[in-house]
């Protein structure tokens, strides 16, 4: 399987550290398969808490291998900014999808699934399914 | 008829008013939000004025779509995509006409407000900017001044409401008794519109 077929993952958080750490966690748990392109987009460009559309667009471009890009977000402005960028039409790579999933669990599910060479729909389904796992 | 200059004046007046009121907006945001509404909008509208000067768009629609795009990319908080979507969708609805009438603006703004409701999932009564914007658009048919009054009354009317959207919704019943910062800034936007019209 070539690298070209892998779905890219973007992790958008209000915090640069949260986005980077969740990316590390998800990649670490994905194990042996081909290395999925994962990019964190956390915080504002100035390094503060918040959301940057520039960082999101750059992260999405950097993980795009032509198989689509799954974007996972934490809350509030992260969700709204991705939706607004998608509405712009030309800000994010073609076949970019905002995935409705819990941030940490969804990121792990998305990266593990993408590392099997699964397509965008399968990656999205796996990430969304993470909502159904109850802890108590 | 309203030309590109009118819409530039609207944006400039909004930026000036957000500058003046930034501390009040942030103070309103402190007990129920993350205390950055004033500074976020200040950064956004300062960037809007700068880009409008630099690129000098020639139609009402182009002024608003460029301003909206700038807000989405510079604000950093939820108000960026929300106000950005409001102005962009309003601008797109105005099309590429060189001048527009008040009635056309009213209909375009309604399209913009609908887009914000879709994006944020908020309805009237949720204690958000929508509570200022919806009555403003409804009153805009009468006059710009009527829209300003309606927006201000709408913002004040969020005080007894419990916030159901955004960061303020997490504090639950404790949001009751606080005027919503987003509705307050939306009232500033509409007041600046009246100011641009000389009303």
Automatic annotation (TrEMBL), chain A:
Q: Which InterPro entries match?
A: DhaM, PTS_EIIA_man-typ, PTS_EIIA_man-typ_sf
Chain coiled-coil ranges: none
For molecular function, the Gene Ontology terms on record are:
phosphoenolpyruvate-glycerone phosphotransferase activity
* Superkingdom to which the source organism belongs: Bacteria
* GO biological process terms held by the UniProt record: glycerol catabolic process; phosphoenolpyruvate-dependent sugar phosphotransferase system
* Gene Ontology, cellular component aspect: membrane
Residue ranges of every copy of the PTS EIIA type-4 domain listed in the record? 6-136
Key words, A-Z: Transferase
Record's keyword annotation contains Transferase: yes
What is the recorded name of this protein?
PTS fructose transporter subunit IIA
Q: What organism is the protein native to?
A: Streptomyces qaidamensis
Q: What is the lineage of its organism?
A: Bacteria, Bacillati, Actinomycetota, Actinomycetes, Kitasatosporales
TrEMBL record, chain B:
Q: Which residues form a coiled coil?
A: none
Which molecular function GO terms apply here?
A: glycerone kinase activity
Entry-linked SUPFAM superfamilies: DhaL-like (SSF101473)
User: Where do the DhaL domain residues begin and end?
Assistant: 5-195
**Which UniProt keywords are present, listed alphabetically?**
Kinase, Transferase
What is one term from the GO cellular component aspect held by the record? Answer: cytosol
What is any Pfam family matched here? Dak2
Keyword Kinase in the entry? The reply is: yes
Record's Gene3D superfamilies? 1.25.40.340
The UniProt entry's GO biological process terms, in alphabetical order, are: glycerol catabolic process
Q: Would I find Transit peptide among this entry's keywords?
A: no
Return the PANTHER family for the record. Answer: TRIOKINASE/FMN CYCLASE (PTHR28629), TRIOKINASE_FMN CYCLASE (PTHR28629:SF4)
Protein name as catalogued: Dihydroxyacetone kinase subunit L
Source organism (scientific name): Streptomyces qaidamensis
